[in-house]
């Protein structure tokens, strides 16, 4: 009880610099709203630097908005579950905020998960759509989850030309997992990340 009483006295306030308020009002805004505000303010500044490739806030927001439109056109509605099975990359950021803007609920999957772990998370989250690193799709297929939408993306899509070979070094960490061929992608009705972004406007 003594510790609780001490806590309520808020002794840390005496260390605040002059002019710093004891209480702050945090506005109720969504993450996409906060991002858009920052993107508008710093449109030309670099938001992401990926292996030397600088992506500005303005460009990032445009691709996020395009991806959100794409998800809407694919039938994803508010509350639908979207899984993100991606490396730490621009695609993760775009898919993350794009999914939120589309009203979806996200369930990120660690890229080091096995097919058994992927299966458990997909089933537990009830995800029907997934944005997946192309060379990780093998685990999704082994998981045998019934997915309505599969969106594939390659690690090299946002690498500068001089660093394209870096993509191979990343792939090397994941053993002999193979990328689905264009024939497989088309025959199974999979979607490709870049094609969706180029096809749909940033509404």
UniProtKB/TrEMBL annotation:
What SUPFAM superfamilies does this protein's entry cite?
Answer: Acetyl-CoA synthetase-like (SSF56801)
Q: What is the protein named?
A: AMP-dependent synthetase/ligase domain-containing protein
Short name of one Pfam family: AMP-binding
Quote the Gene3D superfamilies the UniProt record gives.
N-terminal domain of ligase-like (3.40.50.12780)
InterPro entries associated with the record = AMP-dep_synth/lig_dom, ANL_N_sf, ATP-dep_AMP-bd_enzyme
Q: Which organism is it from?
A: marine sediment metagenome
Domain AMP-dependent synthetase/ligase, chain residue ranges per copy: 35-159
């Amino acid at each position: 009880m003594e510790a609780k009483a001490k806590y309520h006295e808020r002794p840390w306030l005496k260390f605040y610099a002059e002019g710093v308020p004891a209480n702050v009002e945090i506005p109720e805004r969504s993450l996409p709203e906060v991002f858009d505000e920052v993107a508008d303010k710093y449109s030309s500044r670099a938001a992401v630097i990926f292996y030397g490739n600088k992506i500005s806030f303005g460009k990032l927001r445009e691709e996020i908005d395009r991806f959100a439109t794409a998800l809407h056109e694919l039938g994803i509605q508010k509350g639908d579950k979207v899984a993100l099975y991606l490396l730490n990359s621009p695609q993760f950021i775009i898919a993350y905020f794009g999914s939120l803007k589309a009203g979806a609920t996200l369930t990120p999957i660690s890229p080091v998960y096995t097919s058994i772990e992927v299966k458990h998370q997909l089933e537990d989250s009830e995800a029907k759509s997934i944005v997946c690193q192309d060379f990780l799709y093998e685990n999704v297929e082994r998981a045998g989850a019934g997915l309505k939408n599969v969106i594939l993306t390659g690690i090299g899509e946002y690498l500068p030309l001089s660093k394209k070979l870096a993509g191979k070094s990343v792939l090397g960490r994941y053993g002999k997992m193979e990328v689905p061929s264009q024939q497989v992608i088309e025959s199974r009705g999979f979607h490709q990340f870049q094609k969706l972004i180029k096809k749909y406007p940033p509404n």
